[in-house]
Amino acid sequence: MKALIWKENKEIELVEKPIPQIQDERDAIIKVTYASICTSDLHIINGAVPNAIPNTTLGHEFVGTVIKTGSKIKNIKIGTRVCVNCETFCGECFFCQKGYINNCIKGGWKLGCSIDGGHAEYVRIPFADTGLTPIPNEISDKNALFVGDILSSGYFGAELCEIKQKDTTAIIGCGPVGLCAMQCAKFLGSKKIIAIDTNPERLDIVKKYNLADYTLNPLTTDIEQSVKALTNHFGADNVIEAAGSTDTFQTAWKIARPNATVAIVAMYESPQTLPLPQMYGKNLTFKTGGVDAIHCQKLLHLIKEKKINTDFLITGETQFENIIEAYKLFQNKPDNFLKWAIKYKK
Q1: How many separate domains does the chain show?
Q2: DSSP three-state, residue 196
Q3: Tens digits of per-residue pLDDT, 105-153?
Q4: Which of 6, 120, 224, 268 could serve as a FRET partner for 282 with CA atoms 20 to 30 Å apart?
Q5: Is 279 found in the same domain as 210?
Q6: Separation between Cα atoms, residue 38 and residue 291, nearest integer Å
């Protein structure tokens, strides 16, 4: 089968690999139908993910059909369409029992990082009974493409904030995760959403799909003063940082009101500094980490009920054989480009 691997020289290559086989009783093999490219894939190629192993097949955002299962898989049958959780988790350890599946003792973020992922024709999924979620008949594979990663990441960011009714939530970064976080924050009860980005095309997407109440561009306005003006001079009740730069990290705590929560869901390629003397007295709570994608079934239900939609994130569709070109475009994407839908042969 064809598989896309990354190399230590920051290059990618489409190679031949054997079709994966069942290695454990809780494994499943799926045939990939759709996949997408995530910014995290680029972080791996750039050497910014310490646990990533060279020559591993990339990809952790994909859906497919189950073609083989281990003897202990009872909840998913062969032929079932499934979305794949970006986290591999046993469901039994201390962390899994508390819902912290990113820290699973036997798993965590492995697919496309330290074990072969979804940018291949077939994939082995460890702990498939926890990591695969059946897709309802009313939802297409493409509708469900982002459930296991970026939609879960957006929900994770909103959930970290413990949003209360009538809260104002500021979201920094109008990329796919930030756009998902806006929908999830609104679903969880936020009364006002403030979207912040330097890219006017992305702010236009926010306006087009009514994802936020206010849009602010740091290149044309003083963000700290603007947020205060929209919040009775307090600042935002919650801030979700989904951009991942030094400037946005600093903006996040500056626009938060005293005693607010700042949720960091972006992945950084360099260390960030907490200026504790300057923020002393704001009594902020910072929450951060890899996504605990434990709500895939709920998110599929919300898509089915048309309460959340991610279809607009798909800027272009291409065939799997063109995936190297897709990566190049994604890495140097135009301002209005969001996500690929990469289609595999049936």
Answers
A1: 2
A2: strand
A3: 999 999 999 999 999 999 999 999 999 999 999 999 999 999 999 999 9
A4: 268
A5: yes
A6: 14
Q: Using an 8 Å Cβ cutoff, are 239 and 170 in contact?
A: yes
Per-residue confidence (pLDDT) for residue 336, from 0 to 100 = 80
Q: What is the dihedral of CA 260, 265, 268, 273, to 10 degrees?
A: 10
In a domain, 300, yes or no: no
- For all residues of the chain together, what is the average pLDDT? 96
pLDDT band at 267 (very low <50, low <70, confident <90, very high): confident
The CATH number assigned to the domain holding 280 equals 3.40.50.720
Q: What is the mean pLDDT of residues 331-339?
A: 84
Do 26 and 45 have their domain in common?
A: yes
Whether 165 and 276 map to the same domain: the answer is: yes
296 in a structural domain: no
CA–CA gap between residue 324 and residue 318 (Å, rounded): 11
Q: Kindly state whether residues 47 and 65 are assigned to the same domain.
A: yes
Position 3 scores a pLDDT of 98
Distance CA 174, CA 338 (A): 10
Question: Encoding tokens for residue 4?
Answer: 């896309």
Place of tokens 């740091």: 218
Asked whether residue 56 is domain-assigned, the answer is yes
First to last CA, the chain: 13
Is residue 24 domain-shared with residue 118, that is, in the same domain? yes
Whole-number pLDDT of residue 333: 77
Domain holding 232, by residue range, is 154-288
C-alpha torsion 48→54→57→59, nearest 10: 0
Residues 79-103: what's their mean pLDDT? Answer: 97
- For the chain, what is the radius of gyration of the CA atoms? 20
pLDDT of the residue at 252: 97
- For the segment 279-303, the average pLDDT, to the nearest whole number, is 95
Q: Per-residue pLDDT tens for 172-191?
A: 999 999 999 999 999 999 99
Give long-range contacts, CB 8 A cutoff, 24+ apart: 10-13.
10/45, 10/46, 10/47, 11/45, 12/45, 12/58, 12/324, 12/327, 13/324
Residue 265 lies inside a defined structural domain of this protein: yes
What's the rounded Cα separation, in Å, for the pair 299 and 187? Answer: 11
- Helix/strand/coil percent split, the chain, to 5: 30, 25, 45
